[in-house]
Write a structure and sequence with these properties.
Blueprint (H helix, E strand, L loop, with lengths): L8 H13 L6 E4 L11 E6 L5 E12 L16 E2 L2 E2 L9 E9 L13 H4 E9 H9 L11 E6 L6 E5 L14 H10 L1
Parallel strand pairs: 3-6
Antiparallel strand pairs: 1-2, 2-3, 4-8, 5-8, 6-7, 8-9
């Protein structure tokens, strides 16, 4: 057994957000598996009800850094400020939810060092919450132009996160806005479970 425990940054950020959205005073706890062999589960949310019963919801986190698209653009096309890039994956049976996490820097022109206190203001994230079944359906429809499964998929978005649109792989969802899948907007669904 390794004597050191580490947590990937995206999982840390998501766990921190969940702790704020699901406060301890309401009976919630965010748990992190200590074993690296815990396949398909990166985080768990435990809820204790008033009668002492507990329910656990499991979460898989998939991460992408956000890119600034470059290159030529077709006339009349819109270019988002940021884009994510995920590899296709199999949704684990043990996960109740999947969170697609994309981290971006608000201003790439700033080059000064960032203190830990300023990280939250310097970096932002676009975290989309899907049920396992929603993610399976999304990935099933994630195909190339000739109908073959695409090995990558991604979303385009601007800093205000008002529109989050699939920009690769999800041809059947092309133009569909996934802003309603933001973690902050779907936390009520997670609470119901």
């Amino acid at each position: 057994m390794d004597p050191v425990f580490t947590l990937q940054w995206p999982e840390f950020v998501v766990a921190h957000k969940l702790q704020k959205l699901l406060p301890r005073k309401d009976g919630y706890s965010v748990l992190v598996p200590l074993s690296r062999q815990e396949r398909g589960i990166d985080l768990a949310v435990l809820h204790r009800s008033g009668n002492g019963a507990s329910k656990t919801t499991t979460i898989q986190v998939k991460a992408s850094r956000a890119y600034h698209p470059s290159g030529p653009i077709r006339k009349g096309a819109y270019r988002f400020q940021f884009g994510t890039w995920f590899s296709r994956f199999d949704v684990p049976d043990r996960a109740d939810y999947v969170i697609l996490f994309g981290m971006y820097a608000r201003d790439l022109g700033k080059t000064m060092r960032v203190s830990v206190r300023k990280v939250r203001r310097w970096y932002r994230d676009c975290s989309l919450l899907f049920t396992a079944e929603e993610m399976r359906t999304f990935l099933k429809d994630c195909t190339t132009l000739d109908g073959k499964p695409d090995r990558m998929f991604g979303f385009g978005f601007d800093e205000d996160l008002s529109r989050i649109i699939p920009n690769r792989g999800a041809l059947k969802q092309s133009g569909q806005n996934y802003a309603d899948h933001l973690l902050e907007k779907r936390i009520a669904q997670l609470k119901k479970r």
